[in-house]
Amino acid sequence: MRVLVALISATVLATSCAALGGAPAPAPTPSVRERAVAAWHDVVQCARDHGFNAPDPQVDDQGNATFPADVGKPPDDVMRACEQFISRLPAAQTRSGEGPTPEDIRLGRQFAACLRQNGLSYWPDPNSDGTFPATPEVAAEGKSERFMAAGQACAQFHPSGRLFIGAAN
Q1: In the prediction, which pLDDT does 64 show?
Q2: What is the mean pLDDT of residues 147-154?
């Protein structure tokens, strides 16, 4: 009986020691927001390193970044210099990680066609994940008055009002 009690005590003691400071617990997987914050940090730092005074964005739980409305578009040379970081930005996540529906893609194509008809002749159709390719022209346009006017004219094809830019093709 003493041997059994000693074995049970040793097992409990060993388990307790492992739980308190034995093998380290695996690190938690970063959230979508945490990954996006890190990616946006790299983009903003690159822009700053190349002379564009970019503020830190607000990043929501889906990884979407919002900048103050008065931030202009970065110069083309900054966009080219930071392309490697821009390409690492997370693509749009829709409906908790599900892919876009055929209706989402159809509306995205109509939105792109409408933007082209309203002065943004370079605007590409969406990728298969529903994001618009981050071409140099798209990135350079930023929130220009021209883009804002075209976006308003095409709002019926883009009911969410949010624009997701993915990696360039």
Answers
A1: 73
A2: 89
User: And the tokens for 159?
Assistant: 């009911």
- From the list 52, 29, 56, 62, the residue with the least C-alpha distance to 40 is 56
- Count of CA atoms in the C-beta half-sphere (13 A) of 99: 7
Indicate left, alpha or beta for 104 from its phi (over 0: left) and psi (-120 to 50: alpha): alpha
Model confidence at 63: pLDDT above 70: yes
For residue 17 the two structure tokens come to 């020691």
Q: Which residue has the tokens 């599900």?
A: 98
Q: Tell me how long the chain is.
A: 169
pTM (global) more than 0.70: no
Domain ranges of the chain: 31-90, 99-169
CB 44 within 8 A of CB 19: no
The two tokens of residue 112 are: 């792109």
Tokens 């041997």 found at:
3
